[in-house]
Amino acid sequence: MKRVSFVAVLSTVVVIVVVLSSEVPVAKAVTCNPTELSSCAEAITSSAPPSSTCCSKVREQRPCLCGYLKDPNLKQYVNSPNARKIVSTCGVSYPQC
Q: Which residues form the Bifunctional inhibitor/plant lipid transfer protein/seed storage helical domain (predicted)?
């Protein structure tokens, strides 16, 4: 009987160690900071295509776009035709806020 209990406890410990040591994907929290999109300034103010850095930042800041649209100081930029083109070119859907 003691042997069975030892095996059960040992098995439980092994399972716990495996579960605790396995990598669990953790979502990275996005810090909404419109200056992160500064690499898109040229593409927003001209007809230049967005850079890869710009697209990376647009994808990173995607959860923040609705907040930027609600900000009277940023809305004109985020809602501009060039900004919409950038979002589309970068493969990000324009937010429906």
A: 32-97
